[in-house]
């Protein structure tokens, strides 16, 4: 049986959302801006630079905490469900996460960080060659190894997966091989627009049959484009959304998303995102609506640890 939900053109829903958008303060921005700096002259004659820095501490009901170096240390989804993060530095960089639920280890994940490929592609060298992709983006993940522990009364079962991640020359995800590299179950292709924003993520079977596609819109309902200052991994990466080892997949905030499934059934869903933005350009809340009837289906607040270090130059 073939099911489908048709897209209702954006302008048909515009009037339904006009009142909701009235409270949103926005100005058009076409390029990603650095964190705002204010300069004053100190009594010693130097220039004092005030840079406001934001660390996300709460995303919906999820709480994030950090170590003294500002690296993510723990993500708490509930009092009994949390993820711990540890780091291995040096020549062989790694990020390790362990997800616990009801005091049981559910998932252990290792993120392998880039080293430069050797000239003959038979191995890796610790120092990226000058001018190479790896020199420009040395701290991104190319391989993810996951162990999932299924807890049964008669004993635990472990399911292992190995996924490979490749990038384009701008350091953005180009392709993900899912499942069991080097014989992947499926793969996902990522396409970007001229602004460097993720446009499509299309999943295929190993036989190149399209089974799912996500399409993103950044100027829906005529809203001005907004910089995305908080990095999350999109759902299409199929990894922890808070593991910042995959680069930045988009420079701007997505305003709408269409999800299509092609096999075994044809299904389609469409969403519109409404944001509240603070004076520094950071999201403080995101509301998710259905396109078909402008129904609010999720409201996600954001909270930050905000610091304003003072540096004299």
UniProtKB/TrEMBL annotation:
Keywords: Signal. Residues 1-22 form the signal peptide. This is DUF4595 domain-containing protein. It comes from Spirosoma arboris.
């Amino acid at each position: 049986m073939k099911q489908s939900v048709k897209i209702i053109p954006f302008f048909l829903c515009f009037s339904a959302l006009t009142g909701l958008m009235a409270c949103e303060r926005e100005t058009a921005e076409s390029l990603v801006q650095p964190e705002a700096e204010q300069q004053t002259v100190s009594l010693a004659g130097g220039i004092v630079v005030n840079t406001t820095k934001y660390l996300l501490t709460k995303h919906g009901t999820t709480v994030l905490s950090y170590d003294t170096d500002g690296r993510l240390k723990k993500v708490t989804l509930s009092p009994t469900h949390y993820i711990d993060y540890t780091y291995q530095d040096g020549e062989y960089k790694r990020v390790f996460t362990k997800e616990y639920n009801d005091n049981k280890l559910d998932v252990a994940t290792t993120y392998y960080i880039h080293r430069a490929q050797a000239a003959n592609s038979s191995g890796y060298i610790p120092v990226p060659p000058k001018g190479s992709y790896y020199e420009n983006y040395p701290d991104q993940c190319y391989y993810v190894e996951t162990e999932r522990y299924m807890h049964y009364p008669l004993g635990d079962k472990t399911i292992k997966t190995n996924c490979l991640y490749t990038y384009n020359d701008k350091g953005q995800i180009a392709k993900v091989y899912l499942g069991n590299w080097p014989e992947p179950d499926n793969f996902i292709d990522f396409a970007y627009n001229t602004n460097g924003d993720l446009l499509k993520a299309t999943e295929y079977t190993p036989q190149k049959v399209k089974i799912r596609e996500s399409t993103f819109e950044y100027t829906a309902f005529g809203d001005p484009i907004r910089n995305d200052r908080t990095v999350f991994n999109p759902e299409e990466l199929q990894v922890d959304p808070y593991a910042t080892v995959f680069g930045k997949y988009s420079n701007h905030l997505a305003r709408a998303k269409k999800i299509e499934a092609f096999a075994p059934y044809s299904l389609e869903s469409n969403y519109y995102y409404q944001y509240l933005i603070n004076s520094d350009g950071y999201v403080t809340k995101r509301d998710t609506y259905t396109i078909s009837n402008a129904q609010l289906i999720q409201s996600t607040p954001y909270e930050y640890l905000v610091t304003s270090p003072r540096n004299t130059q």
